[in-house]
Design a protein that fits this description.
Blueprint lengths: L2 H10 L7 H7 L9 H71 L4 H20 L2 E3 L17 E7 L8 E6 L2 E3 L2 E4 L1 E6 L2
Parallel strand pairs: 2-6
Antiparallel strand pairs: 1-4, 3-6, 4-5
């Protein structure tokens, strides 16, 4: 044991009451005989016990950290799965709303009613976005059509167009993503080229 460790140890045990022999030894009049080997063995034993306790505590702390991370990941996965399940249930509702909006425009429905449908749709999409759900894009940032990507688009039909082959010409049904997971591919028409 180093000198500073010994001082610390002595300070820690200074409150312990000693028997008469030890009290007289502390005063310098020591008539008791101590077996140094026994004391060293006792110190080794106590040090081993301390080391075991320390190792156990370190392992328990590591297990707690692992459990914390695992639990956090499991909760995030469950939340994502719940949002995904709920969103999949809502997709037919939003499809119907999109059809109603399209039909109401074709039938020249009252402007106020049309505005109500549009507002409802915008709020619906905003709620989706607030929960990490976005519409699969079929155009670039400039609004230009992009080639169909099988990861995000399901080609339903090909039509004559002056665009390059396989470029999206029309979105027949919106696709949706939850963060980086495709909930449903967009159904599209593409150019024959």
């Amino acid at each position: 044991m180093e000198e500073k460790d010994l001082k610390k140890h002595n300070e820690d045990i200074s409150d312990v009451k000693c028997d008469d022999e030890l009290q007289s030894c502390a005063g310098g009049n020591c008539s008791a005989t101590f077996n140094l080997e026994e004391l060293e063995e006792k110190v080794r034993y106590l040090q081993d016990e301390l080391d075991k306790t320390y190792d156990t505590n370190v392992r328990l702390l590591a297990e707690m950290e692992n459990l914390k991370h695992r639990t956090k990941n499991e909760i995030e996965l469950k939340v994502k799965q719940s949002v995904q399940s709920f969103a999949l249930d809502l997709l037919p509702v939003i499809d119907t709303l999109e059809q109603v909006i399209s039909t109401s425009r074709d039938l020249d429905v009252d402007t106020k009613v049309q505005e109500g449908f549009d507002l409802f749709y915008k709020n619906f999409i905003k709620s989706f976005q607030n929960n990490g759900i976005t519409i699969v894009t079929s155009t670039d940032e400039n609004g230009e059509p992009v080639p169909a990507d099988p990861k995000y688009h399901q080609i339903i039909t090909a039509e004559e167009s002056n665009l390059k082959a396989n470029v999206i010409t029309q979105v027949l049904q919106n696709g949706y993503m939850l963060f980086d997971t495709v909930l449903r591919s967009a159904k599209v028409a593409v150019s024959k080229g």
